[in-house]
Amino acid sequence: MSRTNVKSPKEIEGMRVACAKAAETLVAVGEILKAGMTTDDINRFVHDDTLARGGVPAPLNYRGFPKSVCTSVNEIVCHGIPSAQVLNDGDIVNVDVTTIYKGFHGDTSATFYIGNPSPIARRVTECARRSLAIGIEEVREGATLGDIGAAIQQYVEGEGFGVVRDFVGHGIGRRFHEDPQVKHYGKRGTGERLRAGMIFTIEPMVNQGTYAVEIDPADKWTVRTADRGLSAQFEHTILVTKKGCEVLTARNAVLRNSENVAALFV
Question: How far is Cα 250 from Cα 255, in angstroms, rounded to an integer?
Fold first, then answer.
């Protein structure tokens, strides 16, 4: 693979700072979520919080995306556009934050419980959280991208759920999306070998039923499960190191808002 995807020490430090700011904003979101809010309320909060930390919200106007954060509720898999939609007791909502700070992108997301979700909503969400942790455990110099995908797929399908194939993790740095693509399914020993200094996201999307998805034909962004079952996602930005990996978006805080327990951290 190209050396351009192996970050220099200066670039890695820049990524550490940007990722820490994104993680701080995501924790702050978890503190304010509650039934009765709209996803537009989340958008305003993320926009203002990102600016207050000296950053810029990367999603805003990215390839025409109209808001500063993605908010994906219930059957929405990813790229949900904030709106007047009200969060209700029992909903699950993924909040996907990407911060640009001094030219570097930090990307992270978590799925939050609103009030008291159903048992199946909890199962899907906890499976998504655990699948991210399992994928991270595979990251080390010399491993392959296929090792990550295979581990996630085996776990998710073993739990009786589907792992989305149409959307994947990605390299990240000065650009929002770059090589490599990080699939959340696959075969061990296949794909590119990991090298120290690579930075990419792992962000498995776990569906209650089929892994198939549909893109909204009207807005061209919102992705829903094909069967309208629930979907949940967690995401971290990861640095490959000689000894394993560093989770650059690690959330070094505990939510005081205990109702949103799905945001307790991997």
Answer: 14
Q: Rounded distance, CA 241 to CA 108, Å? A: 19
Distance CA 25, CA 30 (A): 9
Question: What whole-number distance in Å separates Cα of residue 207 and Cα of residue 76?
Answer: 10
Q: What is the pLDDT of residues 55-113, one digit of tens each?
A: 999 999 999 999 999 999 999 999 999 999 999 999 999 999 999 999 999 999 999 99
Q: Are 161 and 127 in contact (CB under 8 A)?
A: yes
CA-based end-to-end distance of the chain: 29
Tokens of 93: 């909502």
CATH number of 204's domain: 3.90.230.10
Q: Which residue range forms the structural domain that includes residue 78?
A: 3-263
Q: Domain total for the chain? A: 1
Q: At 183, phi and psi to the nearest 5?
A: -75, 150
Q: Under DSSP, is residue 174 helix (H, G, I), strand (E, B) or coil?
A: coil
Report percent pLDDT > 90 for the chain.
92
pLDDT given for residue 251 in this prediction: 87
Report the Cα 47 to chain-centroid distance in Å: 17
